Please model this.
Amino acid sequence: MSPGIIILLRVLHIVGGVFWVGTAVFIAAFLGPSLRAAGPAGGAVMSHLTQARRLPIWMMVAMSVTLIAGFLLYWANARTGGSTWLGSGPGRTFGLGGLLAVAGGVVGMAVTAPTGRKLGTLGAAMAAAGRPPTPDELATMQSLQRRLATAAALVAVLVVLATVAMAVARYVS
Model:
């Protein structure tokens, strides 16, 4: 691969990763708890973030760009360095970081995204009903919120660990 392509891939990988990791940590540590504390008013904010601002799409694009660029960079290094590089400290650590990032992406796509959609649908139905939520609706909402909070925290931990692996990989022997 030419140096220009490697530079482009690194920029895409790092900028996409900064957005993905930063947003994941912000959501898990600050936004999610604040929305839950705000009660029904939090639903309007989340609805705006997902519908008008398209946050889930931005997250999916950032995740995809980060993972694809990272895979191509790993492949370029493996192709150049062969099994010697793959078995080296940097090769193993970059590989571990990649696996952690992929795991974060899988949890995000398989748990966080569908749970967020279910919450949005339930919240919209409750708002349209024009009445207080039933005990069943409230229990379902709370269960979905717990699931979303747990999954968001797991994604944040996985992508932070992936970032740490990427940051130190060159220095691992």
Helices lie at 3-38, 40-52, 55-86, 89-129, 135-168. Residues 3-171 form one domain.
